[in-house]
Amino acid sequence: MPAEPIIRFDSVTKSFGALAAVDGISFAAVAGETIALLGPSGCGKTTTLRLIAGFEDPDRGTIEIAGESMIGKRPYERNVGLLFQHYALFPHMTVAENIAYGLRHRHWPKAEIATRTTEMLRLVQLDGFGPRRPQQLSGGQQQRVALARVLATKPRLVLLDEPLSALDAKLREELRLELKQILAATGSTTIVVTHDQDEAMGLADRIIVMNRGRIEQQGAPAEIYAKPASRFVASFMGRSNWLDGTAKATHRGPFANVVLDNGLILNIANPGLADDTPVSLGIRPERITLGQPADEDRVTGANQFGGQILGVTDMGAETHYRVTSPAGPLTVVRPNSGEHRFTAGEPVRLGFCAEDCLVFPHPAAPR
Amino acid sequence: MTPRRADDIIRFLCKLMNCAIVLFLLTPIIVTTLMAFDARDYLGPLPPPALSFRWFTAFFSDSYFLKGLAISLKLAACSVAISLTAGIATAYATDQTTFRGKDALIAFFLSPLVVPPVVTGFALLLFLSKIGVIDGFARLLCGHIIITIPYTIRATLAALSGIDRSYTEAALILGATKRRAFWDVTFPLARTGIISGAIFAFAISMDDVAVSIMLTDAKTYTLPIALISSMRANFDLSIAAASVMLMAMTVLLIVILEKLIGLNRAIGQGVFR
């Protein structure tokens, strides 16, 4: 029997005026799970978060936390923790007072509040910072204080609103690992709202991709990246080279073809579409193999052709190539792990597998 | 060379203008102050040959002025207390909701600033007589609440709208009720603005003539009214002494305000972000 979900959304709808910010979404999270709500701004992820926190009430549908309906419950009746995007640490209170705030409102005895506050400061590695003011701390430290304040009350559910977006890139990576570790250590059930794919993939066990108030796809991060359910998900999760064409020979079993608009024929895994459907074909830049023109061993895949290197950008850990090909200019990413590095102007051979072609009905075409 | 010369001349003229304006603003104050300390018992040419506190003594031994001062202080305290409470409540309610015509409503709250005080006073006099309010202090209190409330509303509204909504939401999600969140978070963060509004309101109430003169009666009068009527009756320099004391009070209030706002600046961007 599956575990009782900590949070359950069932066909929840919330409109602002004529706009449905959240349009009939359903999902659930079990204890200890970390879920990411991922999508561009305006996709409804923040409204979803505010519905869970109780800052908004749904127009339709049910929201349950630990089996208990949340309809009509005020935020302070829910025992949910929320880490705000800009932390919202109270500037007129010390770090310790900030952390103790939730405990005071739960009427903990004074001595226990003090113990818990010290414990939380230790958890986020800020021992001794209790008497300071939030504005005397760095961005990363403020974020950790905010996390301590959220976790101090042992909430049933932890909500993170773009938790790392206010930090610079290097600190972000560090804190993402730390955040994940702390959430795991406290066994928190967590919902992360983010527009950042790295944040979602780095923190979550499961990702829910949202677009225009609806759920586009949910699943494990690797699964969503490898098998996106729609062109939207594919283009939102990671980069792709997009080519337009028409599906052909789709009745012939596991493989089919796409005839590109310039006439080139590519081999694809059968997408289950009717013949002559206009399609968008995406190939991840790191799934394209590169080799010297004669190098047929290194270059793999059912689609192979010659090309020429247009430009090279060395990113340190990997190299980004811009390559001309019969299919048009393509971006190719290769890891810098001792492989031959190409230079601009060099002729190359490139190839990719039929299974690596992500094929979706063309978004402009009628369904 | 010539364009530079023109620039220099304009800059010089601007400086000159500055000096002229400062002089223009300062001269009456200096003259009043000098006269307040004049030792002569008649109005002689300036500067006075000797200085004394005699007019201050005269002021404080005149029960007519003292009664006016007492009423003014009591009136200012009461009207500020009421318009502050009403102003905070109004501003909070306005800040919490969004609706069509919100801006128009805010403009309406500030309308006593636009209506000439004489009109306010006269209208109030007619209205209060009609409904049978004849008590002098009650009439003055009504008038002073009307002229002070725009300041308390405006200052509180400005302070509240500067507070990020997420502070209140953070308090709520941490378990505070809306009432607690207001007292724990909203009020402390808006305090500086609220206090500066209260100080302005106090100064306005202490200073008002136009509204008070309509609502005053023989037994209930404010200090500015007492000063004006004594000036008409028998002019002596205790009026100058009273003016100097009113000025001193205003300066004191400004210093307090500056301290508060300066303090706020020192605390940093945190408060109003």
Characterise the protein shown here.
The complex is a heterodimer of chains A (367) and B (273). With 367 residues, chain A is of the alpha+beta class. Chain A folds into two domains: 5-235, Rossmann fold (3-Layer(aba) Sandwich), CATH 3.40.50.300; 241-361, Beta Barrel (OB fold (Dihydrolipoamide Acetyltransferase, E2P)), CATH 2.40.50. Chain A has eight helices and 20 strands. Chain A has helices at 45-53, 95-104, 110-123, 139-152, 169-185, 197-203, 221-226, 231-236; strands at residues 5-16, 19-30, 34-38, 60-65, 68-69, 80-83, 157-161, 190-194, 206-211, 214-219, 241-248, 255-260, 265-269, 278-283, 289-291, 303-314, 318-324, 330-335, 347-352, 358-361. In chain A, the strands form four sheets. Chain A has a six-stranded mixed sheet, with helices on both faces. Chain A has a five-stranded antiparallel sheet with strand order 13-12-11-14-20. In chain A, a hairpin with a 3-residue loop joins strand 16 and strand 17 (318-324). In chain A, helix 3 (110-123) packs across helix 4. Chain A is globular. The model of chain A has no long low-confidence stretch (mean pLDDT 89). Chain B is mainly α. Chain B has one domain (56-267): MetI-like fold. Chain B contains eleven helices and no strands. Chain B has helices spanning 2-36, 54-60, 63-96, 102-109, 117-130, 136-161, 165-173, 178-207, 212-215, 223-233, 238-267. In chain B, helix 1 (2-36) crosses helix 11, helix 3 runs parallel beside helix 6 (136-161) and helix 3 packs antiparallel against helix 10 (223-233). Chain B is globular and about 70 Å long. The termini of chain B are far apart. Chain A binds chain B through residues 53-55, 74-76, 78-82, 84-86, 88, 90-92, 101-102, 105-106, 133-135, 149, 153, and chain B through 164, 166-167, 169-177, 180, 184-185, 188-189, 267-271, 273.
